[in-house]
């Protein structure tokens, strides 16, 4: 199994950015992660962030519009790196090989362990649920989870969607719990649990009761 690349601790900038610009962005991102570990984003001011990063506010505004913009930059970077990690796996194989799906989940859990400082903040219950759903949805999308268990035409729009969202929510909760234990369980164990819980929830629905109405 291929070892997933570690996410750099900071957003990967365009090659045209200077070393000073990269350093400034990295410093601001680190400072925001440190503050988010203690308080929600709404309670973090640009003034406090700049003091933490030892950067003046004019420099901050040269790079970001506000703290939400900075957090969005970090989240996009995380999603990009997860996508690059998953892209190393043959998607055509995953569509028919459930063991490959398990391996992808194990790669992702190993990735979380390698980058837990940022992800412990980004995946916390107080963090952006939309980002967390995007992250897990990206994983399942690459893994072919939407194709695990065929559903009939009537199920496709309603039941399959509910099962998919149930799997995503459960996976987020388990990852949050794992991070809260300081990653006590192994990556393989967490991946196996997610797999075992998620695949049945995405399996075909039982035959529909003809009397059931929508």
Automatic annotation (TrEMBL):
The record, for InterPro entries, names: Homeodomain-like_sf, HTH-type_Tx_Regulator, HTH_TetR, TetR_C_Firmicutes
Q: Which residues bind DNA?
A: 45-64
Its transmembrane ranges are none
Which GO MF terms does the UniProt record name?
Answer: DNA binding
PROSITE patterns noted in UniProt? HTH_TETR_2
Q: Name one Pfam family in it.
A: TetR_C_8
* Protein's name in the database: TetR family transcriptional regulator
């Amino acid at each position: 199994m291929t070892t997933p690349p570690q996410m750099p601790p900071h957003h990967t900038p365009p090659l045209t950015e200077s070393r000073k610009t990269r350093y400034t962005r990295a410093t601001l991102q680190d400072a925001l992660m440190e503050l988010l570990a203690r308080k929600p984003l709404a309670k973090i001011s640009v003034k406090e962030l700049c003091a933490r990063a030892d950067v003046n506010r004019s420099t901050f505004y040269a790079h970001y519009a506000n703290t939400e913009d900075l957090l969005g930059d970090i989240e996009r970077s995380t999603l990009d790196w997860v996508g690059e990690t998953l892209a190393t796996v043959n998607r055509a194989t995953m569509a028919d090989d459930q063991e490959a799906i398990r391996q992808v989940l194990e790669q992702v859990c190993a990735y979380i362990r390698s980058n837990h400082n940022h992800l412990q903040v980004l995946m916390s219950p107080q963090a952006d649920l939309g980002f967390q759903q995007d992250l897990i949805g990206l994983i399942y999308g690459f893994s072919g989870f939407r194709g695990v268990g065929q559903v009939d035409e009537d199920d496709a729009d309603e039941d399959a969607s509910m099962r998919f969202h149930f799997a995503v929510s459960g996976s987020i909760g388990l990852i949050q719990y794992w991070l809260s234990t300081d990653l006590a369980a192994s990556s393989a164990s967490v991946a196996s649990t997610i797999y075992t819980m998620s695949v049945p929830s995405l399996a075909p629905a039982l035959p529909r009761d003809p009397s059931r109405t929508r």
